[in-house]
Amino acid sequence: MAATRYRRFLKLCEEWPKDESKKGRDLGTFLRQRVASAFREGESTQISDPEKCDQMYESLARINSNVYKEKFPRAKDTSFTGVTVEECRILLATGNTDEEKKGLWKTLMERFSSKPEDGTPEKNEK
């Protein structure tokens, strides 16, 4: 039975997309590493908790096949901030940009703030 589980996880790893823009932070790469460490002996690996292993596989398979995306469709392809999917991808991509050096939080605050970020507090005039 361990051989069947191993083959199912291998097939899932093959199907799982790999995001080249997130080097070192890609979920597909992380999943492949975890499967390799969990099944060190390949098909002959003894699984201590088969039910938990099956649950984990089913959960990952549902995520990979977009079950929840289809079950709960989004009305718009933007978040509450109005950022599009492509803009989110650019912000989350691993790259050597000036915005990355500033940090994600500061970049987002500058982008969505209506006042300029010059480091001085705004005065309340009455």
From TrEMBL:
Subcellular location: Mitochondrion matrix, Mitochondrion nucleoid
InterPro entries according to UniProt: UQCC2
GO biological process: mitochondrial respiratory chain complex III assembly
Primary location recorded for the protein, binned into one broad class: mitochondrion
GO cellular component entries: mitochondrial nucleoid
Keyword Nucleus on entry: no
Protein name, UniProt field: Mitochondrial nucleoid factor 1
Organism: Cyprinus carpio
Name of the encoding gene: LOC109091433
